[in-house]
Amino acid sequence: MNSLADKTVLNNGVEMPWVGLGVYKVTEGDEVKSAVKSALKIGYRSIDTASFYGNEEGVGQAIAESGIPREEIFVTSKVWNDEQGYDETLEAFERSRQRLGLNVLDLYLIHWPVAHTYKETWRALERLYTEGKVRAIGVSNFLKHHLEELLDEAQIIPAVNQIEYHPWLTQPELHRYCHDKGIQLEAWSPLARGKKFDDPILSELAEKYDKTPAQILLRWDLQQGVVTIPKSVTESRIKENANLFDFQLSEEDMVLLNTCNCELRFGKNPEIFG
């Protein structure tokens, strides 16, 4: 991983950038359009949104107005909880596609593992994939047992599992399981919502490498083999979050960061999210 242009290869051969821009809680309209345009100008080529975020239209407009060829931009969206089910998911996908103004999405995810529903939702995603409406399909917030239950009936193995992931929540068993199954792990909330920037270990490493706490965390993601999608609406911060390729954390410092793990969640627990 030597530049913002570097990509991982998913289990179906589709290439996905290692670093992208997340737009959770970014307001629809000028704010999200400005953030996406800034990211694309800086060199990002992956944008992560969702129907629940309420900003798909602005994301699509920013992409259309960027002047960058569509095939160079990797776009992810997700089906929300009250949209799940077979027919409901097909309809939700069409709404997302219309709002984004795109014929084909690069990645479509089940946002949360809604009990008694996500298997039918996955069946709809498989149809969207086989019909060529999306280049890859995956899940978000799935724990190991969710994946095991899904794979009992699935025809297609998820390409991605997007989860809350940072040094205070490393979920090693889930990480190993996804690696063994060829499922690419992707981190949401990779910066722990900024609430651990004053952690002594993180502060020590930021000083040692002359980097910001955010850059240390994002570089840790990459060296763990995890795709990362930090969110920001400020161009200077978006640029800072991409400045990850002129340093590398030592093996000892990777281990040191891993000792921070304490199963601390800043988002909802997939077991009780509903």
Automatic annotation (TrEMBL):
Organism: Salipaludibacillus agaradhaerens (Bacillus agaradhaerens)
Enzyme active site: Y53
Protein name: Aldo/keto reductase
GO MF annotations in UniProt: oxidoreductase activity, acting on the CH-OH group of donors, NAD or NADP as acceptor
UniProtKB keywords: NADP, Oxidoreductase
Positions of the record's site feature: Lowers pKa of active site Tyr: K78
Similarity remark: Belongs to the aldo/keto reductase family.
UniProt xrefs under InterPro entries: AKR, AKR5G, Aldo/ket_reductase_CS, NAD(P)_OxRdtase_dom_sf, NADP_OxRdtase_dom
This protein's record includes keyword Zinc: no
